[in-house]
Design brief:
By secondary structure, this protein is of the alpha+beta class. The chain is built from 17 helices and 21 strands. Strands 6, 7, 9, 10, 11 and 12 form a six-stranded antiparallel sheet that branches.
Length: 520
């Protein structure tokens, strides 16, 4: 049976942790809408969506499909894709080659009827995207039977618009993915994963995905009119997928629009096994305003050591959680143990009461709030330094040592300092193998050079960091001022909140067994 765990934590259930779907890329007023009419599906565009179009644009006719500059040459294979340079053509090859070989079979001469339009179909289990014909009626609606033939359950269809805000290029028409709503129960779409990014870089979509294009509605026709998907449209859809909010990793810098900073991708155990990737990967992540909707975390240990780092939960890999024999083991992320540490504040005084090591897990990103580089060696040294101070079996650090060998908050604060870590860093670097690591040994984490997007990156985690710093400053107080960690009525309230979330998930996800993991 599928299993999904809800963590009930000291500060209350973290619904933000269950970030298992793609956040909407556009405001509701700007999104295309599906309308069901006589067992047929039509697409309507609210007034706000029309602002994303430029009826006078001709870029899609003569522009480079990758960078939108004037395209001087056509692909010699399909003659349907234009490029401004060989560099753009080579960079686009992984996304273009499969459809390029099919273009001749889906040209005007092979159209079954005037009512058939060319779409791109990504079926579950297929190695990549394929062209297909979809028949529409005179009003531009797709029949229910045709959608069911493509593997869609009529009641479970959602539309993911691929037109983007904030771009210099506005096409004269809409493009969209027709997807399944069942983000947990449908199988992972391997065709989508293989074409859009390297393993582990992109949030998996489930069920079949159909890419369609629509002209804007006219005064005589309320619904958008389906039209052929071109190579230009397909490239725009790839760009959208690689820069969607649910994919904060910068997959292709040439496509990325907006500020980005260096980061380390910390892969959970399940992702490492499934995708055959390393536990840590260097990359870049977006610090655009929309990413504020993602879940961020500041570790109390980075505050102690004066390291301005922020963790970002990319996603909880639901496919691993719901199919693994040991779901929480699959989500284990050994590199993030100290980064995931949680502070419990005293209710009456606001000072730090204790620190808990919570097994959140999942794949995460780590970046510097000044846009500087965080190197894998920085994180490795950080983990080893704290492991030297904190006993491996101690998951809770408070004012009083509970078990033999436990350290207290006072002892932790005296030993986990910037001076001590700077000294440990020198010791760590001296122990590296110069033959294998000499070319990639970074400067001290305290000598980081701010990046060009320091202002944008500095927003993330600032409030949490300030709260922890203020709490530490107030921790110089008599022991008798400490308050009980949590009253019974507070624990009861949290239990009820967690149970309510679990009940909602059971109703939302039939067939998934929900476990409430309550931690006082």
């Amino acid at each position: 049976m599928d299993v999904l765990k809800v963590l009930a934590l000291p500060e209350g259930p973290r619904q933000a942790f269950l970030n298992i779907g793609s956040p909407p890329p556009l405001a509701t007023s700007q999104q295309l809408q599906l309308a069901v009419e006589d067992d047929r599906v039509a697409v309507h565009a609210p007034d706000g969506a029309l602002a994303l179009l430029d009826p006078a644009s001709t870029t899609h006719l003569s522009g480079c499909i990758r960078c939108h500059k004037p395209g001087m040459a056509s692909c010699s294979g399909c003659h349907a894709a234009r490029y401004c340079s060989r560099e753009c053509q080579v960079a686009d090859r992984p996304y273009h080659k499969r459809l390029c070989s099919q273009q001749a079979r889906f040209d005007e001469a092979n159209r079954p009827s005037p009512r058939h339009i060319r779409c791109v179909f990504m079926a579950v289990g297929q190695p990549g995207p394929d062209f297909t014909w979809v028949e529409c009626d005179a009003e531009g609606r797709v029949s229910r039977s045709d959608l069911e033939t493509l593997g869609y359950r009529f009641a479970d269809i959602s539309l993911l618009q691929t037109n983007r805000e904030g771009t210099t290029h506005k096409p004269p028409y809409f493009t969209a993915f027709m997807c399944s709503k069942n983000e947990l129960t449908d199988p992972v779409n391997q065709a989508y994963l293989r074409i859009m990014a390297r393993p582990g870089q992109i949030f998996p979509r489930r069920g079949n995905v159909l890419h369609m294009a629509f002209s804007a509605p006219t005064a005589q026709q309320q619904a958008c009119q389906p039209r052929d998907v071109t190579m230009f449209d397909w490239n725009e859809a790839v760009t959208f997928s690689q820069t969607d909010l649910s994919t904060p990793i910068v997959i292709d810098p040439a496509r990325f629009i907006g500020p980005a900073v260096p980061c380390i991708k910390l892969n959970c155990h399940g992702d490492c096994v499934r995708y055959k990737i390393a536990t840590m990967e260097k990359g870049k992540t977006s610090v655009g305003g929309l990413c504020l909707k993602l879940y961020h975390w500041v570790s109390p240990y980075t505050v102690m050591l004066q390291l301005p780092w922020v963790s970002r939960w990319v996603y909880m890999n639901v496919d691993l959680v719901t199919t693994s024999p040991d779901p929480m083991s699959a989500q284990t992320n050994d590199q993030a143990t100290f980064l995931d540490a949680c502070v419990k504040f005293c209710p009456s005084t606001g000072v730090v009461d204790h620190i808990m090591h919570e097994p959140f897990g999942g794949t995460q990103l780590l970046f510097h709030t000044a846009g500087a580089e965080v190197h894998p060696h920085h994180l490795t040294a950080f983990n080893r330094f704290l492991a030297r101070i904190i006993p491996a079996e101690q998951n809770r650090i408070s004012h009083i040592a509970v078990g033999p060998g436990d350290i207290t908050l006072a002892e932790l604060r005296s030993r986990a300092t910037k001076t001590e870590f700077a000294s440990f860093w020198e010791e760590y670097v001296a122990g590296l193998d110069r033959e294998t690591d000499n070319d990639d040994i970074p400067a001290s984490p305290y000598d980081a050079t701010p990046g060009p997007h320091a202002q944008e990156a500095g927003i993330y985690g600032a409030e949490n960091r300030a709260k922890i710093e203020a709490a530490w400053r107030g921790n110089e107080r008599p022991e008798e001022q400490q308050q009980p960690e949590q009253q019974p009525e507070q624990q009861s309230e949290r239990r009820e909140m967690a149970a309510q979330i679990a009940a909602e998930l059971v109703e939302l996800l039939p067939g998934v067994h929900v476990i409430v993991n309550f931690q006082p």
